[in-house]
């Protein structure tokens, strides 16, 4: 048997992995008393902890002195457009229109559901955006919604509207495979909390939308989910199927999750409107945990107002998710934006920004509100990524230690298997210090939003993608324009940040969407939604549809 005795040379080698340096005397002092520390770690690994076991420590985005908004209530628009003759026009309609047609009797939930099921059958073989289609269940739920309406009962603005849910949310008796080979036959015994809430709101479940394996990228055990505007490239991730299906008109809306860009990145790629709510607003009970202090649940839609209606159905604290926070949600589709102050980071619109980014900022300045330059403290925001790596590696430790990580399709340098293995060498002391840095970042963003009501910027604005995900601030990402680009490479976390991929300009180019982000104060999603509505109308690009295979 190989000698397992720790030597001073072992310690010296380990120092290089940690970026520290000890003296020969210090190594000699510790070499004889590391066994207990190692034994404790080994003993802990002997305790089986399923993905459902949370961390004892809970992240709360509220700093001392925070005051919860008091306004409450979601008020939608009341469109009067007649029901179109063409099924595609119905499929791409906004939620207020779909709801109005269903409530008036011009459109039945069954017909709408069948329209989406037919489109899924036609287009899913090209897009790989649905992992499981629950056609019989969807039609049964649609019939139940039609029967309720016939009796005079309407469950709300989502009554009878079909949706897709990311395949990391449990659905009773329906495969929930997390996009990953080790779990592709996993069948849960109960529904996730949000599935229950959406059923109570009258929404109709079409099936499970795809995600990159274990909530990263767009590669899953069934293939690679595609961008409807260019099916030669991936949809980005990890809520790849939700964005792809929504952009392609295969559902009324969809549900995604975000740890670091997993709602906003596929929305950037596929041209959808994604709303990442404040951390703690929506329950994650029954969802796969990737990072307990970072995971967030939100809607992916084709328009700004739609996201408000869906979030309203999801909003609320849940005892089954220890991180949820009871908070009111206020949004009025008719409310103006007069008197608001919008900030932007100048560097975000400098070198590296696109003409679409600058046009979006110019459009914001034409909305009649004050638009001002702001700044953030000089902090190592990117260093926070090691928190994500550590939590994710802990969530799926058993894959690393059992070598089941080898069964995942994506094995690149930036893929989860390599990231999980590297995370074993992260320092626990550094992890505590990172938590303290996170507090400084919370103070930095809190200070920024003392100056402005919202911030506008490109998807990769300075440190905002990382910073706001770690502080829990909400983000709305909406379509801003179109560019002519080549097929883009997959996203990567391997360099310490997420990217939406570099475009290959050497081959055929495609007309693809690009978006702009709005960030807001904690639990004040209504503000960025109202600004987003105004910007959406000004830019006038939300209605364009992808050209899809016949």
UniProtKB/TrEMBL annotation:
Query: What's the name of the protein?
Result: Amidase
* Species per Swiss-Prot/TrEMBL record: Antarcticimicrobium luteum
Q: List residues of the Amidase domain.
A: 112-528
Q: Name one GO molecular function term.
A: glutaminyl-tRNA synthase (glutamine-hydrolyzing) activity
Q: Which SUPFAM superfamilies match?
A: Amidase signature (AS) enzymes
